[in-house]
Protein backbone atom coordinates (compact mmCIF):
# COMPACT_ATOMS: atom_id res chain seq x y z
CA UNK A 1 0.00 0.00 0.00
CA UNK A 2 2.80 2.40 0.91
CA UNK A 3 4.64 1.60 -2.34
CA UNK A 4 1.53 2.30 -4.41
CA UNK A 5 1.02 5.69 -2.73
CA UNK A 6 4.57 6.76 -3.49
CA UNK A 7 4.39 5.48 -7.09
CA UNK A 8 1.19 7.46 -7.75
CA UNK A 9 2.66 10.55 -6.09
CA UNK A 10 5.84 10.37 -8.18
CA UNK A 11 3.84 10.00 -11.39
CA UNK A 12 1.68 13.02 -10.52
CA UNK A 13 4.71 15.09 -9.56
CA UNK A 14 6.52 14.15 -12.80
CA UNK A 15 3.47 15.08 -14.85
CA UNK A 16 3.30 18.45 -13.12
CA UNK A 17 6.94 19.10 -13.91
CA UNK A 18 6.29 18.56 -17.65
CA UNK A 19 3.43 20.97 -18.37
CA UNK A 20 2.01 21.94 -21.72
CA UNK A 21 3.41 25.05 -23.38
CA UNK A 22 0.16 27.02 -23.36
CA UNK A 23 0.02 29.73 -20.71
CA UNK A 24 -3.12 30.79 -18.87
CA UNK A 25 -4.16 33.60 -16.54
CA UNK A 26 -2.21 33.44 -13.26
CA UNK A 27 -4.14 33.71 -10.00
CA UNK A 28 -2.42 35.49 -7.10
CA UNK A 29 0.77 36.22 -9.07
CA UNK A 30 2.55 37.95 -6.16
CA UNK A 31 1.63 35.68 -3.26
CA UNK A 32 5.01 33.90 -3.27
CA UNK A 33 6.85 37.21 -2.91
CA UNK A 34 5.50 37.74 0.59
CA UNK A 35 8.12 37.17 3.31
CA UNK A 36 5.65 35.18 5.43
CA UNK A 37 2.67 32.95 4.64
CA UNK A 38 0.11 31.63 7.10
CA UNK A 39 -2.53 28.98 6.70
CA UNK A 40 -4.34 25.95 8.08
CA UNK A 41 -4.06 22.27 7.27
CA UNK A 42 -6.21 19.17 7.38
CA UNK A 43 -5.39 15.66 6.29
CA UNK A 44 -5.22 11.97 7.04
CA UNK A 45 -2.43 9.75 8.32
CA UNK A 46 -1.49 6.07 8.34
CA UNK A 47 0.42 4.88 11.41
CA UNK A 48 2.64 1.85 11.92
CA UNK A 49 5.52 0.79 14.16
CA UNK A 50 8.55 -1.42 13.51
CA UNK A 51 9.61 -3.61 16.45
CA UNK A 52 12.82 -5.50 17.19
CA UNK A 53 11.92 -8.74 19.00
CA UNK A 54 14.08 -10.15 21.78
CA UNK A 55 13.55 -13.80 20.77
CA UNK A 56 13.60 -16.61 23.38
CA UNK A 57 13.37 -15.36 26.98
CA UNK A 58 13.52 -17.09 30.35
CA UNK A 59 10.33 -16.56 32.35
CA UNK A 60 9.84 -17.26 36.07
CA UNK A 61 6.47 -18.95 36.65
CA UNK A 62 4.22 -18.51 39.70
CA UNK A 63 5.53 -21.72 41.30
CA UNK A 64 9.13 -20.42 41.12
CA UNK A 65 10.24 -22.58 38.18
CA UNK A 66 11.64 -21.12 34.98
CA UNK A 67 10.63 -21.76 31.38
CA UNK A 68 11.79 -20.53 28.00
CA UNK A 69 9.17 -18.57 26.04
CA UNK A 70 9.32 -17.13 22.53
CA UNK A 71 6.91 -14.30 21.74
CA UNK A 72 6.95 -12.25 18.56
CA UNK A 73 5.25 -8.84 18.32
CA UNK A 74 4.13 -7.40 15.01
CA UNK A 75 2.14 -4.34 13.89
CA UNK A 76 0.15 -6.19 11.25
CA UNK A 77 -1.45 -3.27 9.40
CA UNK A 78 -1.36 0.47 8.76
CA UNK A 79 -4.08 2.27 10.74
CA UNK A 80 -5.83 5.37 9.42
CA UNK A 81 -6.28 8.60 11.38
CA UNK A 82 -6.71 12.30 10.75
CA UNK A 83 -4.58 15.43 11.22
CA UNK A 84 -5.29 19.16 11.81
CA UNK A 85 -2.94 22.08 12.31
CA UNK A 86 -1.69 25.52 11.33
CA UNK A 87 1.11 26.70 9.03
CA UNK A 88 3.75 29.45 9.07
CA UNK A 89 5.92 29.69 5.95
CA UNK A 90 9.06 31.88 5.74
CA UNK A 91 10.44 32.79 2.29
CA UNK A 92 14.23 32.29 2.20
CA UNK A 93 14.72 32.66 -1.56
CA UNK A 94 12.78 32.35 -4.81
CA UNK A 95 12.91 28.53 -4.57
CA UNK A 96 13.46 27.81 -0.86
CA UNK A 97 11.06 28.19 2.09
CA UNK A 98 11.26 27.32 5.77
CA UNK A 99 8.01 25.96 7.16
CA UNK A 100 6.73 25.45 10.70
CA UNK A 101 3.40 23.64 10.98
CA UNK A 102 2.27 22.55 14.49
CA UNK A 103 -0.13 19.65 13.98
CA UNK A 104 -2.22 17.18 15.96
CA UNK A 105 -2.32 13.62 14.64
CA UNK A 106 -5.10 11.33 15.87
CA UNK A 107 -4.69 7.62 15.16
CA UNK A 108 -3.77 4.18 16.47
CA UNK A 109 -1.45 1.23 16.03
CA UNK A 110 -2.69 -2.37 16.02
CA UNK A 111 -0.31 -4.90 17.61
CA UNK A 112 -0.44 -8.70 17.56
CA UNK A 113 1.67 -10.88 19.87
CA UNK A 114 2.34 -14.44 18.66
CA UNK A 115 3.24 -16.85 21.48
CA UNK A 116 5.30 -19.46 19.60
CA UNK A 117 5.76 -21.59 22.74
CA UNK A 118 2.11 -21.99 23.79
CA UNK A 119 0.00 -23.46 20.99
CA UNK A 120 -3.77 -23.85 20.73
CA UNK A 121 -5.64 -27.07 19.93
CA UNK A 122 -5.04 -26.58 16.21
CA UNK A 123 -1.30 -26.21 16.74
CA UNK A 124 -1.25 -22.48 16.02
CA UNK A 125 0.56 -19.93 18.21
CA UNK A 126 -1.68 -18.27 20.77
CA UNK A 127 -2.26 -14.59 20.06
CA UNK A 128 -2.83 -11.47 22.12
CA UNK A 129 -3.84 -8.15 20.55
CA UNK A 130 -3.47 -4.53 21.54
CA UNK A 131 -5.01 -1.42 20.00
CA UNK A 132 -2.60 1.37 20.87
CA UNK A 133 -4.39 4.73 20.63
CA UNK A 134 -2.09 7.63 19.77
CA UNK A 135 -2.62 11.39 19.86
CA UNK A 136 0.51 13.24 18.77
CA UNK A 137 1.27 16.94 18.90
CA UNK A 138 3.99 17.55 16.32
CA UNK A 139 6.23 20.56 15.65
CA UNK A 140 7.75 19.93 12.20
CA UNK A 141 10.43 22.23 10.82
CA UNK A 142 10.84 21.64 7.08
CA UNK A 143 12.70 23.00 4.09
CA UNK A 144 10.57 23.31 0.96
CA UNK A 145 12.34 23.41 -2.41
CA UNK A 146 10.00 24.55 -5.18
CA UNK A 147 10.32 24.37 -8.96
CA UNK A 148 9.50 27.32 -11.20
CA UNK A 149 5.84 28.27 -11.19
CA UNK A 150 3.96 27.41 -14.38
CA UNK A 151 0.52 28.93 -14.81
CA UNK A 152 -1.30 28.07 -11.58
CA UNK A 153 0.71 25.22 -10.13
CA UNK A 154 4.20 24.73 -8.72
CA UNK A 155 5.55 21.30 -7.63
CA UNK A 156 8.03 20.98 -4.78
CA UNK A 157 10.05 18.61 -2.60
CA UNK A 158 10.36 18.89 1.17
CA UNK A 159 12.38 17.41 4.04
CA UNK A 160 12.88 18.15 7.71
CA UNK A 161 12.69 17.01 11.33
CA UNK A 162 9.54 16.61 13.36
CA UNK A 163 9.58 16.41 17.19
CA UNK A 164 6.38 14.86 18.53
CA UNK A 165 4.75 14.59 21.94
CA UNK A 166 2.51 11.61 22.64
CA UNK A 167 -0.47 12.78 24.70
CA UNK A 168 -1.87 9.27 25.23
CA UNK A 169 -1.75 8.33 28.91
CA UNK A 170 -0.16 5.10 30.09
CA UNK A 171 -2.43 2.15 30.72
CA UNK A 172 -2.16 -1.52 31.62
CA UNK A 173 -1.77 -2.77 28.03
CA UNK A 174 1.20 -4.87 26.99
CA UNK A 175 3.38 -2.19 25.37
CA UNK A 176 3.62 1.58 25.85
CA UNK A 177 5.51 4.30 23.99
CA UNK A 178 7.60 7.15 25.35
CA UNK A 179 6.13 10.59 25.78
CA UNK A 180 8.53 12.21 23.30
CA UNK A 181 9.87 11.16 19.90
CA UNK A 182 11.59 12.78 16.93
CA UNK A 183 10.94 11.93 13.27
CA UNK A 184 12.71 12.53 9.98
CA UNK A 185 10.28 13.35 7.20
CA UNK A 186 10.50 13.65 3.44
CA UNK A 187 7.82 14.22 0.84
CA UNK A 188 6.51 16.03 -2.20
CA UNK A 189 3.59 18.24 -3.09
CA UNK A 190 2.29 20.94 -5.39
CA UNK A 191 1.04 24.51 -4.94
CA UNK A 192 -2.26 25.14 -6.74
CA UNK A 193 -3.09 28.83 -7.16
CA UNK A 194 -6.85 29.42 -7.02
CA UNK A 195 -8.73 32.73 -7.37
CA UNK A 196 -9.17 33.29 -3.62
CA UNK A 197 -6.53 31.10 -1.93
CA UNK A 198 -3.69 28.66 -2.53
CA UNK A 199 -4.33 24.91 -2.11
CA UNK A 200 -1.33 22.68 -1.39
CA UNK A 201 -1.74 18.88 -1.35
CA UNK A 202 1.31 17.10 0.09
CA UNK A 203 2.31 13.49 0.70
CA UNK A 204 5.13 12.76 3.15
CA UNK A 205 6.70 9.80 4.96
CA UNK A 206 7.84 10.12 8.60
CA UNK A 207 10.21 7.72 10.38
CA UNK A 208 11.18 7.78 14.05
CA UNK A 209 14.90 8.42 14.63
CA UNK A 210 14.87 7.35 18.28
CA UNK A 211 13.69 4.28 20.18
CA UNK A 212 10.01 4.99 20.86
CA UNK A 213 9.52 2.07 23.30
CA UNK A 214 8.94 2.81 27.00
CA UNK A 215 11.26 0.29 28.66
CA UNK A 216 9.95 1.05 32.18
CA UNK A 217 6.40 0.03 31.31
CA UNK A 218 6.92 -3.72 31.92
CA UNK A 219 7.85 -3.19 35.58
CA UNK A 220 4.75 -1.02 36.08
CA UNK A 221 2.30 -3.70 34.93
CA UNK A 222 0.17 -5.11 37.75
CA UNK A 223 -0.62 -8.28 35.79
CA UNK A 224 2.61 -10.28 35.82
CA UNK A 225 1.36 -12.47 32.96
CA UNK A 226 1.53 -9.44 30.68
CA UNK A 227 5.18 -8.76 31.43
CA UNK A 228 6.47 -11.51 29.17
CA UNK A 229 4.67 -9.79 26.29
CA UNK A 230 6.02 -6.36 27.25
CA UNK A 231 9.55 -7.80 27.47
CA UNK A 232 9.24 -9.51 24.08
CA UNK A 233 10.41 -6.37 22.22
CA UNK A 234 13.70 -4.51 22.67
CA UNK A 235 13.01 -1.36 20.65
CA UNK A 236 10.46 0.22 18.34
CA UNK A 237 10.48 2.87 15.63
CA UNK A 238 7.21 4.54 14.65
CA UNK A 239 6.31 5.25 11.02
CA UNK A 240 3.69 7.50 9.54
CA UNK A 241 2.42 8.40 6.07
CA UNK A 242 0.63 11.76 6.01
CA UNK A 243 -1.53 13.20 3.23
CA UNK A 244 -2.06 16.88 3.99
CA UNK A 245 -4.05 19.70 2.38
CA UNK A 246 -2.75 23.18 3.19
CA UNK A 247 -4.91 26.28 2.68
CA UNK A 248 -3.08 29.62 2.43
The 3D shape can be described as elongated
Number of helices: 3
What order do the SSEs take from the amino end to the carboxyl end, as H and E?
A: HEEEEEEEEEEEHHE
Low-pLDDT stretches are none
Output mean pLDDT.
85
Distance between the termini: 30 Å
- The rounded Rg comes to 23 Å
**Biggest sheet details:** 12 strands, antiparallel
The percent of residues in helical segments reads under 10%
**Beta-strand proportion:** over 45%
Count of extended strands: 12
- The computed structural class is mainly beta
Describe the structure.
With 248 residues, the protein is mostly beta strands. Helices cover 10% and strands 57% of the residues. Strand 6 (103-119) and strand 7 (125-138) form a beta hairpin. The longest helix is centred in the first third of the chain and has 16 residues, at 2-17. The protein is elongated. The mean pLDDT is 85.
In short:
By secondary structure, this protein is mainly beta.
List its salient traits.
3 helices; 248 residues; mainly beta; elongated; single chain; 10% helix; twelve-stranded antiparallel beta sheet
Provide the fold topology:
Blueprint: H1 2-17, E1 36-53, E2 56-60, E3 66-75, E4 79-91, E5 96-100, E6 103-119, E7 125-138, E8 141-146, E9 153-166, E10 180-193, E11 198-208, H2 217-220, H3 227-230, E12 233-247
Antiparallel strand pairs: 1-4, 1-12, 2-3, 3-6, 4-5, 4-6, 5-8, 6-7, 7-9, 8-9, 9-10, 10-11, 11-12
